[in-house]
Design a protein that fits this description.
By secondary structure, this protein is α/β, with parallel strands linked by helices. 37% of the residues lie in helices and 15% in strands. Strands 3-2-1-4-5-6 form a six-stranded parallel β-sheet. The protein has a six-stranded parallel β-sheet with strand order 9-8-7-10-11-12, sandwiched between helices.
Length: 324
């Protein structure tokens, strides 16, 4: 099925954790089409990471048009590219609209858009973890006949290419610290506060980890600086890296970290994919069976994260790292 597929579009628009998990499917698409010209349709936050990724030849960040004129321009670009196949890894109402915009003659499309040629027709797809679901989607598309689709069997994202990429002259903040360090990721979506463990709990955990000889690095977006300051009030030596690391830097920090602890949010997925021994905290707001990071990962669940004891998380860090 891959012999005459020369021009490919891959769609993945958001969010960061989902994008990181989708890198596993993106790798398989590249392996199945080694000589094809592959374009990623995405959004601006992922441009820098995608441009150093070896799975793509081109990156289009106009994947979320809002104005009618932007929709017209997106349709013009996609039609002009004459793609031989589309792998829709977003599989959302928005990507369905993109498919419908390309009628009456859309390219062969792998996904769930109404009327697409390579439909992922597994009725259980929404009960599968992202990694197994996308592997199954590629099996339905004909490029992964022996796809691992049993729970927990699909490979985790491979970020080895990122560590080989040139980092230029800009150092990664905190990457060359003389002592071992723990990464704390206390933030998450501002509109989903129920997915956050309290900053005071992170501060108490930081005290415990610091007493074990670990430096503390707090990672997140610039809007999460106050969370870092709350942790610094507990451990003044903790380093605030919120707003100072791009996606690649977070993954590289994860590669060298002794430990990463955080909420179910994108930067923690990057740290885990980078190789950090990771503890991820889940509330009732999301299901780790569908979206947890993979790797050396421990999942702690509490319907109400405010009720999750610091002692339980600290014990998990001990078990994961062997520290006392």
């Amino acid at each position: 099925m891959t012999r005459h597929v020369d021009r490919i579009l891959v769609i993945k628009l958001s969010a960061l954790g989902d994008f990181v998990l989708a890198l596993a499917a993106m790798k398989k698409i590249r392996e199945a089409h080694p000589k094809a010209h592959v374009t990623l349709l995405t959004t601006p936050p992922f441009e820098a990471l995608a441009k150093v990724c070896p799975y793509f030849n081109a990156v289009d960040t106009g994947g979320r048009p809002t104005a009618f004129s932007d929709w017209v321009e997106l349709r013009r670009r996609l039609r002009a590219a004459r793609f031989d196949r589309v792998y829709d890894l977003q599989t959302s109402a928005h990507s369905n609209r993109i498919f419908q915009a390309l009628r009456p003659s859309p390219p062969p499309w792998s996904g769930v858009a109404f009327g697409c040629a390579l439909r992922h027709a597994n009725p259980l797809r929404n009960q599968m973890h992202t990694l197994e679901r996308q592997a199954d989607q590629l099996m339905y598309a004909g490029i992964w006949p022996d796809a691992p689709t049993e729970p927990g069997t699909a490979p985790a994202p491979d970020l080895s290419w990122l560590f080989k990429a040139s980092t230029g002259d800009r150092p990664v903040p905190g990457a060359n610290r003389p002592r071992p360090y723990a990464m704390l990721v206390p933030g998450g979506s501002a509109h989903r506060p129920e997915k956050r463990w309290p900053a005071s709990a992170y501060g108490e955990l930081a005290r415990i980890l610091s007493a074990r000889g670990l430096d503390i690095l707090v990672v997140g977006g610039p809007q999460e600086t106050e969370l870092a300051h709350a942790i610094q009030r507990a451990v003044p030596s903790a380093r605030d890296l919120t707003g100072r690391t791009d996606f690649a830097a977070v993954a590289r920090l994860g590669a060298r970290a002794t430990l990463a602890v955080g909420n179910d949010t994108g930067p923690l997925h990057l740290a885990a994919a980078g190789g950090a021994p990771t503890i991820v905290l889940f509330s009732a707001a999301s299901d780790p069976a569908l979206s947890a990071p993979r790797g050396r990962v421990v999942i702690l669940r509490s319907d109400d994260l405010a009720a999750l004891p610091v002692s339980q998380v600290a014990q998990a860090t001990t078990a994961l790292t062997g520290a006392h």
